[in-house]
Amino acid sequence: MAGRQGGSSLPEALIAFLVLSAGMVVVARLQTHLHANAEIARHRSEAVHLAREELEAMRVLAAPDAASGVRTFADLASASRTVADSVDFHSNTQYRIDRRIDPADTAALKAVTVTVDWADRRDEPRQVGLPSFIGGTPPGFSGALSAQASPRAIAVLRGRSPAIPVGALDRRDGSSVYTPAGATTALVFDNASGQVIARCDADDPDPRHCTPIQALLLSGWIRFALGDAPEPALANDPALRLAVVLTLRDAAAGDSTDCLVDMQERTVAYHCAIVSAGGSWSGRTQLVPQGWVIGNRPTEFRVCRYSADRDDTGAIDANIEHPGEYRRVDGPLMQQNFLVVRGDRDCPQPVPIAGAHADFRTVLHQT
Known about the structure:
- The structure is a single chain.
- This protein is α+β, with helices and mostly antiparallel strands.
- It folds into two domains: 38-137, no CATH class; 140-366, no CATH class.
- 15% of the residues lie in helices and 35% in strands.
- It is built from two helices and 19 strands.
- The protein has helices at residues 10-61, 139-142; strands at 63-64, 71-72, 79-84, 94-101, 109-119, 125-135, 169-170, 175-178, 185-190, 196-201, 211-225, 242-249, 256-263, 268-275, 281-289, 301-307, 326-329, 338-342, 361-366.
- Strands 7, 8, 9, 10, 11, 13, 14, 16, 18 and 19 form a ten-stranded mixed beta sheet that branches. Strands 3-4-5-6 form a four-stranded antiparallel beta sheet, with helices on one face.
- A hairpin with a 4-residue loop joins strand 7 and strand 8 (175-178).
C-alpha cells in the first residue's frame, strides 16, 4: 500500500494567499500614507519659509509717517500673491501668501500675520500662519533708503548674504533664485557671497537649464514723492511703471547687463547683474519711464538719486556714494536708491538723519 503524500489542501492555499494579499495591501497603503505625510511636511516647510520671507519684506517696505516720523503700514495691508513651488519645479503646488496688519495696534508697534495657503495632492486645504511684530523705528535708525552698503565683505544673515533680494527663493542647495513678477529672466545668487552665479529663463528656473555666469550686482530702491513738497524720507506715493537700464562704458566683447525690476504698490526694487570680462565695470544707470514723461513741467517728472559724501572729500566721487557715473566697480553695490519727484520741483536737499555719518541728500539725476 502506497504511503500518503504530504501537502496543503486547496482551501488552505486560498487562505494563505488571502492573508498574504491582505498584508501586501496594508504595506502598500502604509507606504502611500508615509509618502503623503512626507510631501505634506515638505510643503509645510516651504510654506514656513515663504511666510518668513514675506515678514522680512514687510519690515523692509514699512514707510515712515509724515507727522510722527515712525513707520506706518497702510500700504502693506490686505496684500496677497501666489507663488509656485520653488523646490520641485515639476510640482503643480501653488502657495497663496496673505499678509494682514492689525489696525488696532499703536503706531509704534504693529502686530502682523502672514498666512500661506495651499492644497495637497488630495486637494485638501492646508495653511501655515506666522504672527509677528514690526516696530515703528524712525527711518534714521533703521537705515531706510539712505543707508549705504559697505564695500567690505558683508556678514551673512540667516544663512544668506544681505545682497540677495528679499523676495528670492532659497533653493536649499546654497543658492537662491530671484524672479520678479512679469520678468522674463531669473537670476541665481550664491547664498554665502551674494554673487550672481547663473541666469535662467523665468518660465524654467530649473538649475539644469540655467546658464552659469559670474556677475557683479548693482541694486537699489526707487520711491516716489509726487506732491507739492516732496520729502525723501517720507516718499510714499504710488509707484510709476518704469524700467532700469545700465549703460556700460568701454564695454568689451562678452560684457552684458541684466536689470530686473520688481514693481510694488509704492516702491520699485531693481537688481542689475553685470558680466564684465575685465572683472570691473564703469557706466551709468537710468530710469526709463513707461506711460509717463521725464521733464520740468508739473505734469512731468524728474529723477533724483540719494547720495552722501561718506569719505568727507567734499564731493560725490566714490562708487558707494551713488555718483552719476560709476567708475571701475569691482564689487557688489547695494542701496543705490532713487527718488522720483514732480517735474517742477527741485530734488530735496540735505536730509539730516540722527546718528548718521553725514547728511544724506538727493541730487538731480535725470530731467
